[in-house]
């Protein structure tokens, strides 16, 4: 693609997504300006998706873009931050012609608009490999109030914000390996819902938090490591959806099955700690002196292995 074609495509597909933000300069410059907000800290996160790794090969372009937005906003949600802007980087494969690129931009725009996020800039290139897209998401949080992974203390409670395991089961449903008659599980995998509704709750009572992308056990372990404590997770208290409960009912070893749900990843709920129960969260364990995550079910301790997704 020539430079003229690239700039024309950026103007056509992505300029509308700036939502008129002054610092975006209509995407006519090669940099943006982020205005300051007195009394607030700027929270920045970045996640990428690669076709065939984070989303199925051949996934609809609009769905890929929407999942890209949502996994980034999930990180901001876990920090208690209010999203406001993003930067996009995308490498188009040869199979992504004008129709696919337009569908990607439409999906991106739909979700950015839904959460009031303006596109401030980025870059587009071509690649001989699979579709690769990354988003850098920016959010505001009151100065010094970002909820970090470090902060869990002995005596605190371990909590999760919603059903665990739907993301992993949803991937199985997309692959045709798990029954999904109403499409709920596939929807949970393809279009996770970032828990931005819980920002104020986290800022008001959480001592530490992380979004559940790699798996509940793995992301709880991130908190344990950052905080220098031991987290004990009781899988029998872990919330599951009706679809998850139906899958569990067919498994020969309920404890092993619950462990699989807790290590599958792609849930994009929030795991947190705090000195008291938080509204909208389920208590699933506690914090004590020590290290790592202890996983228990049916009165016995389980070996969680890596605990979830391991990044290459």
Describe, in plain words, how this protein is organized in 3D:
With 312 residues, this protein is α+β, with helices and mostly antiparallel strands. The protein folds into two domains: 140 residues, 2-Layer Sandwich (60s Ribosomal Protein L30, Chain: A), CATH 3.30.1330; 146 residues, Phosphoribosyl-aminoimidazole Synthetase, Chain A, domain 2 (Alpha-Beta Complex). The chain has nine helices and eleven strands. The protein has a seven-stranded mixed sheet with strand order 6-8-5-9-7-10-11, sandwiched between helices. Strands 1-4-2-3 form a four-stranded mixed sheet, with helices on one face.
In short, what is this structure?
The protein is an alpha+beta fold and 312 residues long. The protein contains nine helices and eleven strands.
The secondary-structure class comes to alpha+beta
How many domains make up the 3D coordinates?
A: 2
Termini separation comes to 31 Å
Widest sheet: strand ordering: 6-8-5-9-7-10-11
Helix content: 25-40%
Q: Class of the largest domain in CATH? A: Alpha Beta
- Total helical segments: 9
Q: CATH homologous superfamily of the largest domain, by name?
A: PurM-like C-terminal domain
Uncertain spans: none
Q: Tell me the β content.
A: 15-25%
- At CATH level 3, the topology of the largest domain is Phosphoribosyl-aminoimidazole Synthetase, Chain A, domain 2
Overall mean pLDDT stands at: 93
CATH architecture classification of the largest domain: Alpha-Beta Complex
Rg calculated over all Cα atoms: 20 Å
Taken in chain order, the helices and strands follow as HEHEHEEEHHHEHEHHEEEE
């Amino acid at each position: 693609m020539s430079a003229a074609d690239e700039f024309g495509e950026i103007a056509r597909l992505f300029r509308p997504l700036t939502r008129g933000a002054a610092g975006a300069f209509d995407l006519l410059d090669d940099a943006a300006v982020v205005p300051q907000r007195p009394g607030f800290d700027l929270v920045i996160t970045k996640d990428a998706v690669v076709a065939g790794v984070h989303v199925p090969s051949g996934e609809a372009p609009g769905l890929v873009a929407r999942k890209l937005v949502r996994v980034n906003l999930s990180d901001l949600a876990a920090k208690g931050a209010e999203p406001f802007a993003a930067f996009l980087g995308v490498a188009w494969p040869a199979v992504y012609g004008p129709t696919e690129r337009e569908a990607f931009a439409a999906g991106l725009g739909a979700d950015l608009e839904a959460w009031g996020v303006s596109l401030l800039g980025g870059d587009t290139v071509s690649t001989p490999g699979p579709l690769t897209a990354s988003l850098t998401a920016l959010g505001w949080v009151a100065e010094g109030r970002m909820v970090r992974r470090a902060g869990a203390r002995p005596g605190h409670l371990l909590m999760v914000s919603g059903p665990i395991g739907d993301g992993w089961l949803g991937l199985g449903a997309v692959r045709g390996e798990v029954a999904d008659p109403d499409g709920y599980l596939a929807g949970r995998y393809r279009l996770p819902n970032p828990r931005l509704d819980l920002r104020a709750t986290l800022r008001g009572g959480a001592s530490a938090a992380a979004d559940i992308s790699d798996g509940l056990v793995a992301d709880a372990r991130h908190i344990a490591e950052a905080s220098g404590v031991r987290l004990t997770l009781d899988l029998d208290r872990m919330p599951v959806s009706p679809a998850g409960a139906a899958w569990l009912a067919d498994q020969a070893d309920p404890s092993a099955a619950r462990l699989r749900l807790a290590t599958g990843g792609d849930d994009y709920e929030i795991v947190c700690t705090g000195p008291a129960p938080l509204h909208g969260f389920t208590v699933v364990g506690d914090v004590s002196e020590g290290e790592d995550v202890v996983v228990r079910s049916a009165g016995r301790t389980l070996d969680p292995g890596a605990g979830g997704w391991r990044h290459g």
